[in-house]
Amino acid sequence: MNFSVKEIATASMVLFAVIDILGSIPIIISLRKKVGHIQSEKASLVAILLMIAFLFVGERILSLIGIDVHSFAVAGAFVIFFLAIEMILGITLYRDEEPETASVVPIAFPLIAGAGTLTTILALRAEYHVENIIVAILVNSLFVYLVLKSSKKIEKLLSKNGLSVIRKVFGVILLAISVKLFASNINELF
Description:
With about 190 residues, the chain is mainly α. The chain starts with a helix and ends with a helix. The relative contact order is 0.22. It contains 9 helices and no strands. The protein has one domain (about 5-20, about 40-95, about 105-185). It is globular, with a radius of gyration of 16 Å.
């Protein structure tokens, strides 16, 4: 075992920035209003399983179906782009007529364990020991769980106007992340 506090801290910070659960609070609150209830435990557990599974077999799965990491990242950039457009303009591009739960889709995937997160996990694997990345995933998943669990309290703390402003600001940040993800991977496709 090669546990390293420095590697765990760095990987945790990188994943925290990419997952951006704080920036997703407005999305989580609006999803909770649509579906009534979010199963925080289920969403967190599914996200953990997706991230750890992708850590071990991600590149092989993508190559098996003929997709490289850069194509996956560009696709993730499009998903993030459309989420950002919804947040900034206050429109709904994706509409599920009778959503029963938002716990797995879109919260666990692609909001928490989306293309950006999964691509980042593959990049971290090239630099850090697997056990440190797993601890970083668990640390971030605990924080995600706490945010999901307290989303009603967070909504009460923020007013409707405050929530709207935060949603638009984080929408612009999400838009910038999508553009960066797209720009840094599109050249590799050609």
